Predict the 3D structure of the following.
Amino acid sequence: MSIPRAIRMAFFAIEQSEGAGARVRRSIGTPKLRNFSPFLMLDYFNVPFGAGFPDHPHRGQETITYMIDGAVDHEDFAGNKGSLETGDLQFMTAGRGIVHAEMPREREDGKPNVGLQLWVDLPKKLKYCEPRYRDLSAAEIPTVDVDEGKVHVKVISGQSHGVDSVQELAYTPVWFLDIMIKPGGRIAQNLPVGWNAFAFTLEGTTTFGSPRKQQVVSKYHNVVFEQEGDTVIAEVDESAEEESRFVLVAGLPLDQKVVQYGPFVVNTPEEVYQAMRDYQGFKNGFERAKDWESEIGKKMAGW
């Protein structure tokens, strides 16, 4: 018999400035919710053309970028480049070191580019692995409909109602589901026991929790669930005027210390100082950063 997960807390993600002219709603990586292992940061970003995230480094974590509306181009110091369109994802493993840029595409309608970026910690033994990318296009993502078609689930990573994702895209085990619920719809989604889990609400109003203890949540909230239990229940009232949409994410907690300084995520203060020295000295993974500048950073940020 399934055991519903209770809600630990739900809070609104306040918009703030980030990068070069970008706006983000950060809900993990703030005093409210920090180091929710294996999750380090979650940003809902809203980036107009001409703004973005020009050349910057990473070490020791993975990033999952999900384009909700619009497109973003990326480029790194190893010559990797590409684009994410609406519905596409990129899983980037920084490992020992990478420097890259992420810049929005200009849209004919002038609208900003909207998406999510989740930072996931790497296990200690993989902190210094070689960087890699794995892309997942919108067309590749399996889907499943439940509750007589009132609920639609994109199975980006993990499992939902008998449907498995294409493949494991991150080193750290993570489930990532995009769920849409029409008025009157309900879903009971199983999650791995003992994993940390949260939902970030994108549209509409969703009721989370078991019938005995429910909470109604509007958009741009992070709903953090207790670790106990194996099921998250979500529904939308039949009288609602619009459908709801949220991402449900769960990850295997890592039993390790997190020491973070900006884009460097390691396990000891000494490793932070070493990361800074390596980046500034172009060594131990950052050799290719010397004299490198991204073309998209120069072109799109007006450099």
Summary: Residues 3 and 229 are 5 Å apart (CA to CA). Residues 269-281 form the longest helix (13 residues). The chain has a mean pLDDT of 92. The two ends are 59 Å apart (CA to CA).
